[in-house]
């Protein structure tokens, strides 16, 4: 149902309690829906390729790649969130209040776990570059798997406690039908900002500044060393160069992540009250979600193993017996 002023209701049969649909031209609405659907589908496919690659090929079962696998799983779920954003940008939440609460919880868990994984990646590169002699002892597959599980578990518990009122009383704070509202008190908001943004981002920045300082000094040292002794220790130099390249690549992943995440947290930090209407933050949500589509593209550009694994997947060679033992390095 529409009115003379051009406004439309989300639920025309609920005249007095329905929310108003966002005012958008049909062409803009179609373009937005197609764009978000395309990005969401691309995010799902690209991250699924990362998940299959690292899970299938034994050569890729390294501590660093286990962290990338966990990040890809998180990014894979983000692909589904794009389809919810289509409704939110349209101004009407057409699903139940319980689904709204679960959507908010999933979004927060994905954000918290992604930030936690980024911290673990920073720690991994810090140990690999700053203490390479003890890296294989301190950073093992088993320890990394335990840390990843703890990261996801803590994210679920923490965000469930943060959003417990929304989960216990779905839709309690909405002003009209067709609205999805996230509510938390000011104290929880401050704690969440410190725990989910300020502390982890500080850790990431400090560790990576240290990593690149050490990496720069190592690069200069290797240049001088290879000029003096080129043949005898070429394998050692190659290993160090590989570690520096991995640090650079993962550094790009971290920087892109921070760029995409920062605007959303700025909006939360400068909010005027404790009620965040998800519709008003839809654009910044999509910007953060878009980071999940960029990560596999970064891998494809910098990691030859990912490009080779994609070729093996699309040519169905991974279905052959023993394909998991192929050399794709």
From TrEMBL:
This is Trace amine-associated receptor 13c-like. It is found in: Cell membrane. It comes from the Eukaryota. It holds the Pfam family 7tm_1. Residues 46-299 form the G-protein coupled receptors family 1 profile domain. Gene3D superfamilies: Rhodopsin 7-helix transmembrane proteins. The chain crosses the membrane at residues 34-54, 66-96, 102-123, 144-163, 193-213, 250-270, 282-302. InterPro entries: GPCR_Rhodpsn (IPR000276), GPCR_Rhodpsn_7TM (IPR017452), TAAR (IPR050569). It comes from Cynoglossus semilaevis. GO terms for cellular component: plasma membrane. GO terms for molecular function: trace-amine receptor activity. It is a multi-pass membrane protein.
């Amino acid at each position: 149902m529409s009115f003379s002023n051009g406004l439309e209701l989300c639920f025309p049969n609920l005249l007095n309690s329905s929310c108003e649909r966002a005012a958008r031209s049909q062409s803009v609405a179609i373009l937005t829906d197609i764009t978000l659907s395309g990005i969401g589908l691309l995010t799902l496919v690209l991250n699924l390729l990362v998940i299959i690659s690292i899970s299938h090929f034994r050569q890729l079962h390294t501590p660093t790649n286990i962290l990338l696998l966990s990040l890809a799983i998180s990014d894979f779920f983000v692909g589904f969130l794009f389809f919810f954003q289509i409704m939110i940008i349209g101004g009407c939440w057409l699903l139940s209040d319980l689904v709204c609460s679960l959507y908010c919880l999933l979004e927060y868990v994905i954000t918290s776990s992604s930030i936690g994984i980024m911290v673990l990646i920073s720690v991994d590169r810090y140990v690999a570059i700053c203490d390479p002699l003890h890296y294989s002892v301190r950073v093992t597959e088993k320890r990394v798997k335990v840390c990843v599980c703890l990261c996801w578990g803590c994210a679920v518990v923490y965000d469930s406690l943060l959003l417990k009122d929304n989960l216990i009383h779905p839709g309690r704070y909405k002003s009209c039908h067709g609205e999805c509202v996230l509510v938390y008190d000011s104290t929880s908001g401050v704690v969440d900002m410190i725990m989910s943004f300020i502390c982890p981002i500080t850790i990431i920045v400090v560790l990576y500044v240290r990593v690149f300082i050490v990496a720069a000094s190592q690069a200069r040292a290797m240049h001088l060393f290879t000029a003096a002794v080129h043949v005898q220790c070429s394998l050692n130099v190659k290993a160090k160069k590989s570690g520096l390249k991995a640090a650079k690549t993962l550094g790009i992943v971290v920087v892109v992540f921070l760029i995409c995440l920062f605007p959303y947290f700025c909006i939360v930090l400068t909010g005027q009250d404790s009620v965040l209407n998800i519709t008003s933050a839809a654009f910044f949500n999509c910007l953060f979600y878009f980071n999940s589509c960029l990560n596999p593209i970064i891998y494809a550009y910098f990691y030859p193993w990912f490009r080779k694994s994609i070729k093996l997947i699309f040519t169905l060679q991974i279905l052959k017996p023993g394909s998991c033992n192929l050399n794709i390095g």
